[in-house]
Amino acid sequence: MSKLLIGIHGSTGRVGRVLIENLKNDEEAKIACLHAIDEFNFTAPQEIKKTNSLEELFNSSGVVIDFTAPSGTGTLLKYALTNPKPLVIGTTGLNGAQLALLKQAAQSMPVLYSTNMSLGIAVLNRLVELASEKLRDFDIEIVEQHHRFKKDAPSGTALTLGEHAAKARGLELDKVRVSGRDGIIGQRSKDEIAVLALRGGDIVGRHTVGFYNDGEFVELNHTATSRDTFAKGAIHAAKWIINQPNGQYNISDCLGL
To answer: What predicted TM-score, i.e. pTM, was given to this entire model?
Structure first.
């Protein structure tokens, strides 16, 4: 059986480099092409194709995995609109226009987009939704921690967790979200959901969703100790998405959640 050919858009980034390592000995998939928006700042195996051309990336690959920046993902999606290809997108911080492009692209190709490719986070999203629904009188607070280099805050993962919590209570996160507290702000409102960001050191990623009530509280947390978890999840998603019809998916769909 021939291996799935995977192209990596954003191969020079932190997750891109880990994807390369994880695909070296994969029995079902291999790297077809490495794409860099700027210059290649590392040495890849000589036999692997390297390019700055989206056309060459798409022509070489059966599926493209994207871990870049929002602007890079936007450019990728615009190209894909006229050159459909199964896509797995893990870039965070997408704005409204870029999300609209993603939705448009999903009409003519299968697109899997998740703010966190961890399989553990996919399960955590469902647990948060269940807890939020069943513990309706509990206050919800979300805290995320990441390394000093992360550019967006709160993390896309924390916002997604907040969306699941809000949805379970019939709320819209944008209308109840609190991003910080300072000064004499008055007591906490019943529906508000705090999403707070901490930055420092080399923390790969930690997310805690707390449900707090008088006399008891429950905290659900997920800690990523290595970027391997994101790479493995994206590869799992790539193997799954190639067999799906056009549409937009997320990492939970891979697990049937």
So the answer is: 0.83
